[in-house]
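Final report, closing paragraph on structural work. Over the funding period we assembled a curated collection of sequence-structure pairs, and we close with a single example.
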Amino acid sequence: MKNFLCFCLLSATLFAVDTLTPIATIDINGTVKDMVFNQNRLVIATDMGHIEIYDAKSREKLKEISIPDIKDFMGDIMPARVMSTDVIAEQYLLLSDSGKGGYSDLYLFKEGKISKLIGPEDKEAIIKARFVDDRHILLGYLGDEVALLDIESKKELYRTQLSESKFSDFMLNEKHTQAVFSCESGVLSVVDVKSGKVIEELQGQNVDNVYKVDYKAGTVSGAGQDRRGSLYDVKTKKGTYIAGEFLIYATALSPTAAKVAFAMDEKNNISIYNRSSKSKIALLKGQKSTLNVIIFQDENRLFSASDDNTIMIWDLNKK
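Its predicted structure, as stored:
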């Protein structure tokens, strides 16, 4: 009996899941709609017509970039909702709602000046934008189209229809040579960024909308409406999934893809798993509302944002 109790205690220790709280927070002016991490900077898009840039280590606010207010359908003046942002060197992207017919505005901030690349007169419904390099921007359209925009000419080098479903998200790989796109069908399309051609279709693990995706070290993760956190090896196209308790709104992979994060329950907790074994290693508690972004800075430090004004910072080593 004594040996059995010792075995139970040892098993509980070996398979214990660390419950962690944030080591720090950043409060911003507005509700977070998007966030990226680049060279120790956090760039945060808000619904108040601006982006905020913070030093990720000191949490000091470095800069704020605003775009013009818009008129809503009633003719009232209001801040534009910045849906997507990105940074490369000292160039910043701001993709926002134009307030006209559901079309988008795309702004570029460079050398202290802001210019508009796309406006409502172009009648484009763009949901997400990311820099490929300092001369090109990858665009994800509402109708599940991918396009590559040349910044200087403001012309698209291609536009590819990926499916008949509604677009959800995309993520570039580390070298910005490929991107994975998700949509309402649950099929993930891996696209060659230079040509716009579909290289692979990853399917079988999600049967409904995949809200968010990540792409690191040849691995793709997907946050599914079907309560499945999907994982694929892009080279082999083989996949698996981790079952959640609720709709999974966000996901992220660590730089080596050794760890994966999913928002797995209705309390907006973040579950951290060993990707290869699918064993849970930590539960991050503290989010106040629906998660929209999770980012690994390295193998142990993460940032997360919800539909509120608080950025949370986590360290898996701080128990």
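Residues 4-14 have pLDDT under 50 and may be disordered. The chain has one domain: 18-315. We thank the funder for supporting this effort.
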